[in-house]
Amino acid sequence: MKFKILTLFPEIFPGPLKYSLIGKALKKKIFTIETVNIRDFSEKKSKSVDDTPYGGGAGMVIKADIMQRALESAKKNLECKSKVIFLSPGGKQLNTELIGDLVKIKELILICGKYEGIDDRFLKKNKIEEISVGDYVLSGGEIASFILIDTCVRLIPEVLGNKNSLKSESFQNHLLEYPQYTKPYNWEGIKVPEILLNGNHREISDWRLKKSIEKTKKIRPDLIIKFNKSKKEEV
Ligand code: SAH
Q1: Which ligand 1 atom is at minimum distance from the Cα of 94?
Q2: pLDDT, tens digit, for every residue of 68-127?
Q3: Interaxial angle between packed helices 141-153 and 20-27, expressed in degrees from 0 to 180 and rounded to the nearest 10
Q4: Is the CB of 141 under 6 A from ligand 1?
Q5: Which domains does the chain have, with CATH numbers?
Q6: Where are the alpha helices (DSSP H) in the chain?
């Protein structure tokens, strides 16, 4: 997968994506990151990219003409089918299903906003899809793009060593993951549940499913509705 990132802060990348399993995948070029500095497309001597919002209000808005030039430059030398995404709290919320669709695309162009955002005419003219990483406001799209890239890359088959670890993770089958334990067996007087020690895989997987359902009911009742619906569809 190839990620092209339009940002005012290219020096932030690859940042946290340099480490651990994702970092190894980056080194092996299983995915690549390229940045485009939005500021390079300002025609002003000061290199400013924003102006005050029409209609008044706080903050500044990134100008459409500058974004258009930056996007056209990013779209040059495209090798394959690509998709352009604006990371924005006003977008469709990123979830497992959406990530599954994004991983199928070879090249993603990610636009990171700043200040109050980007002139809406640029987004509409280019029919850009907006994606949000959650119902809160970050101060810039860069952290959101780290989240999107990390979640996509870990779904590329060669990235995680054990494919099974993906299957049982939270949000697969609309459930949160069951509790996990490792050695020692007795830590500060708290013992690991006996059932995990008996080697009976059937009993262990039944226990884990029960714990997943219990936790999801308590923490995320909205997911349990989806889980029950998917079970009904299976029958
Ligand atoms: N005024 C905007 C928020 C701007 S925050 C509003 O109320 O919707 C500045 C930039 O941070 C945004 O343009 C976007 O690129 C990024 N950002 C903030 N919160 C985000 C979120 N939840 N998901 C994705 N990107 C986000």
Answers
A1: 23
A2: 999 999 999 887 789 999 999 999 999 999 999 999 999 999 999 999 999 999 999 999
A3: 80
A4: yes
A5: 2-160 (3.40.1280.10), 168-234 (1.10.1270.20)
A6: 20-27, 64-75, 96-102, 120-125, 141-153, 163-167, 201-219, 221-234
